[in-house]
Amino acid sequence: MMARLLSSAFLSVLLLVGTNSFASNPELDDLMTPDELAAEIGITEPTDLSPQVEPFSPAQILDTYGVDVYSEFPVVIVVSKGSQTATVYHNGSQVNSFLVSTGREKYERAKSGRWYTTTTPTGWFAPQSYVRRHWSGTWDALMEYAIFFNGGVALHATTPDHYKDLGHRASGGCVRMTKTNAIWFWDLSLSEKTANVPYFTRGGQILRNSDGSIKRHNASGTLVIVTSY
Fold first, then answer.
1. What's the pLDDT band for 24 if we cut at 50, 70, 90?
2. 10 Å Cβ neighbour count for 157?
3. CA-CA distance, 152 to 37, in Å (whole number)?
4. Does the residue 20 lie in any domain?
């Protein structure tokens, strides 16, 4: 009898813990993984979820290499996973800062049924694709003002029902923002779509030619920096 009572009590505790954990850890609401999204849209670049790198900050680049990143790239957006904010610079000056939601940083299942790590990769990135409006016929869902920078990972507008989550990790990997901020950044980025900018690595190193000059090319004028801090 005592054994049965202890067993029942232990089961009750497990159920209570499980219920509380579920209540504080809602189900992921993203419909698909970044790779599934990329395939649906037609983006061929794979999503790079390789081990996270902590990129050089613009201040470190200036101190170490004497290169002012904010002047070299017309548009710079710095996404901080630590503070869940995005800070935007245009032609060397800070012009905006707002709350975002990045990945939940868990191994979990999208509504498509596929398991993956819901991380927002850190590093330096250039926009790969601009998708103004994507309607998923498979999932009957809308994504707007999406700027893809790492395979199926994008900066994009979220829906009003998710505005309450901004400032917290809540996405499947993308960087969510209000529609107002997404439109504003979309327009700014497209206004500087091409510029003579430095080559860089994901870790934030600026590449140089054999004579020591900065190695440049005509590419997107927008630099996306994602940091863990």
1. very low
2. 22
3. 6
4. no
